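Something for you to look into today, if you have time. Could you write out one complete protein record for me, on any chain you like? Leave the record below and I will have a look.
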Amino acid sequence: MPTRLSNAAFDEQTWSSGPVRRALWNVTSSDIATIVCPTCGASQYAPCRTLRDRPTTALHRGRTLRYLNVRFAIDLREPHHRSVQRRSGLGLDAAGLRAVRMPHPQPWRLPLHQLSDLINVSFLDLATVVTAQACGLRRTDLDELLYGPDRIEQSIDALTYALYDRQIRREMRVLSGLRDESAEALKAQQDAVWRQLREAERRLKAQRVEELTAAGVLPFPAATDDSQRVARAWLGRYLSTEKDALVLEIATAAGVPASAAAPIRNIQDKITRCIDNGWLIAPLNDAVRAVLALDEPAFTKRLLANAGGQDERDDVLCHPLVLNRWRDQLNAILHAVAPSAGNPHTKNLTDLTRTPTARTTAQLEQLHARRRLFAALLQRRAQAVRLITTLNDGLSLAERADPSHTLLKRAGDQAYDELVRRHPDLYQRIRTHLSRFETRYGRLQIPGSRTQLREQLFKELDRTAMRTPAGVPARR
């Protein structure tokens, strides 16, 4: 059971060694909705939309930052490209300008509609509330507010931040020789947040499985052990260009639009098609194009700037066409930072108090900074992986719901049959290669990786084609 802690355990003092908390302008979700969202393209006064065009109460961070920038001339929109000069904001006597509010010391005490607005705008307030709830705070409808379908991923992100925040602060106290009540309290909060994080992740997974099962995407069919079907599929992969042309020809003849039947070469093509067809709501605007054009040093700089703040997020990195590069670059930076952060791997943040090492004050300060950076990068990677999972779910659901789905599947089957008819010798070579793995029942039992076996076979076919060009079609 979570440890029940008093409200006093969650006042502003508990964040004193964390990032500096900036007071936000006293704005509401309805204020922010007066401008177009740069992330999902939601129009004025319309709610932000998920990738699958569902309304969500969790406002996109980019919309909040753009509102503050436009309304009050606060330069937050591009933290990595901030100008030295500051524009002047509206005068204090301007109509509608409200006073700056200080961060609420106990935000969970606010009326629920105000609390909902607050955690839409302020990530650090969301982190405070999920921590309090994990440590025993109980309030009617709070659980649904934090872990409903449209905010559970934001709450998981906030729990991840709170978990690493508590761990690092406890580590610094212990490594400084302060094994006191504060260190014990931080440990108790860390454990409670960890349990709540695992529970939230299980809840999110259950939601995903339920939705994908209802749509017929799950359960995934088991890999076939029929040697004929495997050989047929491998022939199509080996002659991919010819296979794609056949699918396009057969599908368009069956009435499938050419735009839907065109071959997909990579995941980027697949995402672009889904955006063009309206299956994904992810506008390809100038900001996204600019990020896609960045070289590696510039992209890394932008990535690090995004990891350096919690409220000031760079939503462009969350665009479907940028996600894979974001995740891969995060992995590369994590491997580079891990040694200086005292972490033997990049899976999670290890506990330094289990193997304490004597350090000077300067060394502890440097270690603290590196640990904070490493934790922020871990948090962003977890966010990127969740977004990629959401994206893949969206692609699967959109494809299955498209009227052309059944016709394209049928065209694919016909294309594979036509390849076998056109290239019987090549098909037979693949069957012969697979025959060593057949059982007496005519079924395959491949002990290792099918992918590795397939690539070995393709290399052999390529070498054969080089020796006898007329014998095997060139791989395309």
